[in-house]
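Same chain as my last thread, 109 residues:
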Amino acid sequence: MAYVVTVNCLGTKDRSCVEVCPVDCFYNIKNKKYNDRFGREAKGEDVGMLMINPDECIHCGACETECPVEAIFEDSGVPENLKEFVGINAEETTSMSDQDLDASRCTSK
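reply #2:
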């Protein structure tokens, strides 16, 4: 089981979640297609969204309570209308090369 970042992160990328993550499983996916697809305006670095790699998430839940826009859910608790984000998070983060993962990994400041 893992946590999943959903649509409310688009155009926000607050990173409060990243600050509390003990394993650095968040990635900054700068893909404007998600902003366009879900109708969320993007400006500069806010293009795309943060995503969680399900293979790295330790299911601690720290990120869920820290997210100010309520974009993070346990994968088994994602609302029906946001279920596609379970696959989106997994596809985006598990298909990247090690070099791409290192380049887009979000760590606490």
